């Protein structure tokens, strides 16, 4: 039987806002997306708002029964005011929560529906880090772009393994507490202390093995993601280079452009001959060619008479 969450291509690792603050949760493998959305709707509905709405509806009913007199109108107006104020307060609270936790739904989780990462912080920083790593690994396996190339059942199996791992970790609480108690109890024998410590070390070693194997899956999927990105970049580069104009086409355009000034020269010289406008500067001997200047023609110069230039040359 397939995992309902994975069948809907939804990651079972979600972020939510709980009464004690934001946290990450791993949903139960049997929890369907429809059930999870229903839990979010119930979490969004505050009990105070629901009670005020029921009170307003009851008051409206009394107003309808009372008739059109002053009492009925008063009760109806008060009920409408209560409902409006309750809705306004709920909207303000929702806006405030969205400002604090953008795009993070408010969550109300029943026992057994999911494991929160904060539930394991009391087991030590190493264990808390391990739990966060397991949850992040499951989430990445569900969101990776390499998922289309994997066994469809693999993300669901990883979800199940991590869920059962967290269950085993939760069951080790008594053993960990007992090991700490025996370590500080002078009446406990060395054999009991060693046995309890060995049991906890064995559990931690097996949990580390689960994390190591999950980490191996992520190494493989990330390597394949890199291959996919490389293939995509190669195809895009090939398409871009293929769309470039060829050398023959550019040579043909350069040849066509080369004929343009020759055409202009033929027409300009013919018009000059008809108009008897005289020679062009380049038709004179090179010594008679005008000096090149950076100033455009017909622009007055602003140089002083004492400076170099035509005016200065005339005075010298």
From TrEMBL:
Residues 306-316 have a biased composition (Gly residues). The chain crosses the membrane at residues 43-64, 70-88. Residues 296-316 are annotated as: Disordered. Keywords: Membrane, Transmembrane, Transmembrane helix. This is Uncharacterized protein.
